[in-house]
Amino acid sequence: MSPPASFPASTAPSSADLQAVIGLEVHLHLNTRTKIFSAASTDYFGQEPNTFTDPLTLGLPGTLPTLNARAVDLAIMFGLALGCDVSGFTQFHRKNYFYPDAPKNYQLSQYDRPIARNGAVTVDGERIGITRAHLEDDAGKLVHPLYAPYSLLDLNRAGMPLIEMVTEPELRTPEQARKFLTLIRATAQSLGVSEANPEEGQMRCDVNVSVHVPGTPFGTKVEIKNLNSFRSVQRALEYEIARQTRIVKAGGSISQDTMGWDEGGQKTFVMRTKEGEADYRYFPDPDLPPLDITPEWIERVRAQMPELPAQKRERYLAAGLREQDADSVSVDVPQSRFLDAALSADPKLDLQKLANWLLTDVAGWLSAKELNLKASALTPEHLAALVGLVEAGTLSGKMAKELLPEVMQGADPATLVAERGLSVVTDAGAIEAAVDAAMLANPAAVEQVRAGNLKAANALFGPVMKAMNGQAGPDVVRRVLNERLGV
Ligand code: ADP
Ligand code: MG
Question: Which CATH number applies to 428-485: 1.25.40, 1.20.272, 1.10.3210, 1.10.10?
């Protein structure tokens, strides 16, 4: 059914009635050692252009593709993780087009027999359908030097194994689209399917968006190509939804265009009107036989599947982590790996306390230095040791925070404590003197505690800690206070 192209101005819906409809197409570089159809290495990031090629990558006549079995394993695993049906029978088609970055003049892709289809993931409690996920090869890259009257070609990326996944038009807001992508990245990284780093071009996204009045047919969609950060996806969607809303409200119609995102100007621009599927002249590749994926193959891959973000979230909740923290850590693979490693370094530690340090103090220090966990010298063992020293009462929270910058730079907390004779005063004598002084200075609080208002003891606790310069173990102070107050 074709959607209404325009509304008469008099009955144009107000923006409050309009809702956005979003579908995403995500490309991920698979984490294989060699390319999808040849033995050329995939490790080209940051290397000289055109040094990671071979005759097949260059599209030379007479070369024949050999399918990388590891790429198939990873695609099966990813399909299973997205709740898809994984095909027993799959096939590669040639998608024909001419572009200088594709020397074969066709892309090897999967057309009517994708490796996976009919899946779904859950984002914020909403089910988002996954239409399909298929394997294909990546193109090279045209480089346009500034002001030069020519373009350069780098074929290192040509032949990289890609998985393309397509969602149903079931996302409704830019925020939800960003959360979906965060979940997909975490899923791919947890499985080792892809590094999924948008900055290295390992994860790219095309967005499709339209607006309509709920309950009526969908509006005409616009596609925005090649967004390479989650922030760009969100901004481009916000911009495009506002643009379409303005047009529809004014009674205009949306033309079905393919657009680009201008990062500098923060706006979309028209690249081309969309080509039809027939233009690609898809046909089965005669050099690659159909692929029969046996049930045993699928089960072997399923048995190797590690924990997925949703399972991780459940595990964290069961271990007492706050829901908000479980939500964020479970989709941040470097962070959750670090947290898990710290906990296994000292399984007696309280997960929430460790997470508080990681998400607040450590994350704060890293973001101030524009670093990430991977690039920092902090080890999970050192974080566990620091938190352990606080828990044991050897360090006060204050002292631990003062040591953090050095620990972030690789120092072992236990060594720092030993070398500097740090460690909180647990000498009851000094603490008793401070407690007595605090009680003398605040007899009213003492009265109240003795009259049964135990909370009033807090008014004495602060001054004692202050008198001890923050170097007294809070547990010891509490114990001495209670003893002296006779409660
Ligand atoms: P095309 O024929 O342009 O390839 P598809 O139906 O295959 O379109 O869908 C491509 C993508 O666009 C999918 O992610 C799908 O969810 C999304 N999509 C389809 N229709 C709409 C729509 N009306 N509004 C927004 N997104 C849509
Ligand atoms: Mg399509």
Answer: 1.10.10
